[in-house]
Amino acid sequence: MLELIVNPMANSGKAMKAVGAVTARLDERGVEYRIHKTERAKDAEEIAKRLSEEDAETIVAVGGDGTIHEALNGMDCERVKLGIIPCGSGNDFAASAKIPLDAKAATDIIVDGEAKPTDYMTCGGKKGLNIIGTGIDVDILKRCRKSKILRGKLQYVVSLVISLIKFVFYKFYIIRGGEKEQTEALIACVGNGKQFGGGIRMCPKAEIDDGKLDFVIAGKLKKSRIPGAFIKLMKGKILEQDFTKFELVENVKIEFDKPVTVQIDGELYDGLDFDLRLVSGGIRIYRP
To answer: CB of 185 within 8 A of CB of 128?
Structure first.
């Protein structure tokens, strides 16, 4: 039995079209399923928690990165397997997991494929699959939330340009063995997946099953260099820049000189401790 958690509002309601393709495929293949529609924020998390307690074997998130994030945080990752039908506006984790955007093809992977061990992250009591960070990415997401016109990657890119012009650099401290390393940065993020914002490759070398996380810091730079930095980021070449630091880690702890908002897979959390750890192979996900 597949338990489908569906966000009817994903991608401006286009997720329901994907649901039709998924159920048609499952009916054709003779696979039993139940549909659970979300009605409000955090609903997918509550549904996934309830299904886990009812001994569900496979939960399928039908929606975008937000739906996947909520399902992840509600489910019992040690016992329950996760399927993904990507039909949001960004689908960033699905891209790193190589899950096709075609609903029928993604369904076939769940029906015929194998749930493979996949890394995930924990931060301040929350789980993340894709990218966790703070800095300009948070500023961009807040601008996106306010936008009533643009959607998808274009919305993110426009918000990114505005944020690059207006952004005030974050001051923070990286904690290593009791010692503090002070720095100022445009963004500090940790990637299990490669991209955010519908295809912007902030962590282009990241792999979701290598037992490592990509810690990327884009440091302080002159305003005159920001246009060039933007172009390099859009081309997935941010790691090649002299203001960028990159290392492979299993955990990262950061302290800030004032309260900040942390984004986890595109969801915003205020007052969260940035004490991040890897759970290697901690969840089984259906993927090619």
So the answer is: no
pLDDT tens string 146-172:
666 655 566 767 777 777 766 777 889
Tokens at 32, concatenated: 């039993």
286 is a domain residue: no
Residues 160 and 232 in one domain: yes
Query: Would you give the end-to-end CA distance of the chain in angstroms?
Result: 21
Q: Three-state SS for 132? A: strand
Strands 2-6 and 33-37 come out as: parallel
Answer yes or no: is pLDDT of 192 > 90: yes
Tokens coding 286: 């259906």
Residue 82: domain span: 2-113
The per-residue b/e assignment along 200-233, b for 16 or more CB within 10 angstroms, e otherwise, is: bbbbbebbbeeebbbbbbbbebeeeeeeebeebb
Percent of the chain with pLDDT over 70: 95
Q: SS3 of 178, please?
A: coil
Burial profile 109-142: b = 16 or more Cβ within 10 angstroms, e = fewer = bbeeeebbebbbbbbeebbbbbbbbbbbbbbbbe
151 and 61 in a single domain? The answer is no
Tens of pLDDT, residues 224-255: 787 787 778 778 899 998 999 999 999 999 99
Phi then psi for residue 160, to 5 deg, are -65, -45
Indicate whether 217 pLDDT > 90.
yes
Give the number of residues written for the chain.
Answer: 288
Residue 66: the pLDDT is 93
